[in-house]
Amino acid sequence: MCYCIYDSVLLYLCDSACGCFLQSRRALLVAKGEYDEVNTPLMEDLPQLYDQRVDYFQPTFQALIRAQVTHNSYIAFFLKAAQIRRRCFFFLVSVMSHYMNFYCR
Question: How many Å from the N-terminal Cα to the C-terminal Cα in the chain?
Answer without folding.
Answer: 134
